[in-house]
Amino acid sequence: MAQRFSRRTVLVTGAGSGIGRATALAFAAEGAHVVVAGRTAAPLDETVALIGERGGTALAVPADVARPGGAQALVEAAVGHFGSLDVAVNNAGVFRGGLPVADLPEADWHTQLDTNVTGVFLALRAQIRRMRTQPDGGAIVNVASNIGAHTRVPGTAAYGASKAAVTALSRAAALDHIGEGVRINAVSPGATATTMSLLPGETEAGRAERMRHAVPLGRVSRTEEVAAAVLYLASDDAASVVGTDLVVDGGGSL
Ligand SMILES: NC(=O)c1ccc[n+]([C@@H]2O[C@H](COP(=O)([O-])OP(=O)(O)OC[C@H]3O[C@@H](n4cnc5c(N)ncnc54)[C@H](OP(=O)(O)O)[C@@H]3O)[C@@H](O)[C@H]2O)c1
Fold first, then answer.
1. Is residue 235 within 6 Å of ligand 1 at its C-beta?
2. Whole-prediction pTM value?
3. Which atom of ligand 1 is nearest to the CA of 163?
4. Which one of the listed residues 95, 156, 159, 245 is annotated catalytic?
5. Residue 39 in contact with residue 11, Cβ under 8 Å?
6. In-domain check, residue 3
7. Any catalytic annotation for residue 232?
8. CATH number of the domain within which 88 lies
9. Using one digit for the tens of pLDDT, what is the confidence trace for 58-82?
């Protein structure tokens, strides 16, 4: 297997499950030292154990990216433990769907905007402040969604607004900081094989049947397929890719 990230330190938020865990495993398999973050310690420890079983190196750091200080603590943990922060993946996110705008509780709006937008802003700011001091700079990949900038789904206004903001924020930050050696991009997954894409009470078989018709590819994306896009954008293979938003959705937003 290619070792595109050997001797590099990679931070992945939301790495206790789903896309974030698959991404952390993929970076570790390519030689990275991985800092895995999320609010809950136990699933992070599981991710670290999975990486360790495969011969990789990882550190679990519980943190809430939506709270002041959370993002900064993650940068300090990466630098303090491994000596640098070379790649950051801002993947932590929440989804509260199902209600039209007129019925949307303010709490659902704030939860999604706080984590998905403010959380990414605070993370970006802390990460860029560190990376621009490093001789080799750094690369950042933000996880947005095809819901937002690329397509719309009924009952997902707050989530879509938050993820469209991630796309816009990624482009703006890329423009502001590429001259300082910090390269920023986004990945926009469509429905992916995690609990987030299950409707309330839906089984994986039920989701598979729904996706056969809803997605041109005929299925959800695998978490490893989204991770592969993240690793590409974070790698030197994408050295001249700046401010893009790579849609990985089986054609769901065409
Ligand atoms: N699955 C899909 O179909 C899909 C489609 C498009 C985009 N996405 C995006 O992909 C990303 C990963 O989602 P997923 O499908 O892998 O869902 P997931 O399994 O629910 O993962 C989300 C992770 O984010 C963490 N998290 C949530 N709020 C946080 C906070 N404030 N601070 C730190 N960590 C936090 C969660 O852990 P804790 O609860 O322990 O903090 C969890 O591990 C999200 O940004 C999501 O919006 C997913």
1. no
2. 0.98
3. 47
4. 159
5. no
6. no
7. no
8. 3.40.50.720
9. 999 999 999 989 999 999 999 999 9
